[in-house]
Design a protein that fits this description.
An eight-stranded mixed sheet has the order 8-9-10-7-11-12-13-14. A six-stranded parallel sheet has the order 3-2-1-4-5-6, with helices on both faces. Strand 9 and strand 10 form a beta hairpin. The radius of gyration is 20 Å and the shape is globular. The chain has two domains: 141 residues, Rossmann fold (3-Layer(aba) Sandwich), CATH 3.40.50.720; 175 residues, Dihydrodipicolinate Reductase, domain 2, CATH 3.30.360.10. The chain is built from nine helices and 14 strands. It is 34% helix and 28% strand.
Length: 342
Amino acid sequence: MSVQEHRKVRWGVLGVASIAVRRAIPGMQKGEWSEVAAIASRNPKRAEETAQRLGVPKSYGSYEALLADPGIEAIYNPLPNHLHVPWSIRAAEAGKHVLCEKPLSPTVAGVRQLLAVRDRRNVKIGEAFMVRTHPRWLRTRELIRSGRIGQLGAISGLFSYFNSDPENIRNRVETGGGALLDMGCYPITLSRFIYGEEPTHVFGSIERSPDTNTDQLTSAILRFPSGEATFTCGTRLVHFQRMQLLGTLGRIELQYPVNPPDGQPSHILIDEGKGAAGGRVTSETFEYLNQFTIQGDAFSKAIRENGPIPVPLEDSVCNVAVIEALFRSAQSGKWERPQDFL
């Protein structure tokens, strides 16, 4: 089917979350396979104003009304973390395909609920890890598999921002806040994606905020059959993102690995590793591409062609198992097995 022949998938958006309004909706509106046809909010006026501002044709004053619209084929769910599973289930029960923001669920049990409704209703449900469809990460995996830096043995990541607002959903335990769920899920999925394996054991260390009780500083070690991945993420630190991939012959570095600056090209730095201070460093440059456009089109195309979606629930359940194991490890002080949560 050519791009000219297909009909765009009509999307509805649950809520007016910042990530939806600032990034996902504008990105999807640029897509060749996606059309944002409606948006809903519990506040009808806010839904209407947001729809008008973004050029979305329809607005609804309740999530239920959006799900009842027979013209909507797929739902983008950017609601707070604790609402991901219940509203994704309701969307699937209404016969809609669902692209749900990360983290899909804080527990494997939640993902299994989604698996059950997906199979019963015969819809597609996926997790919105936009990094997994970006050409830069696809190229990074290709470089690793080609042996460009030898045998991959270590991945290291740092992810941080400063947010001390106790009312912000990222700082509320009851809404699924905290560093691990908000940021740590990224190095987990990317490490699994790059290694092409599941970690056998993980170890986690967590420092909780005295005023919100969310994890404000979390570090982790993931032990894979082929190597290790480590990361630190924090919600009370300077804004920063970086990932390094070290092999036997060289190193790859990705600056802004999750959120490359808008409108600017992004890069993969490849260090040949010829000396302690680094060897010849080359760079592969990628012209600016909107991650949310790519993600929306990939999911929409999978709907139209009945193909595989980028991050299916089978992948999500493994990612969440690692998250659960890290939370347990931080309590037990021991290595834990993600397999025990599956």
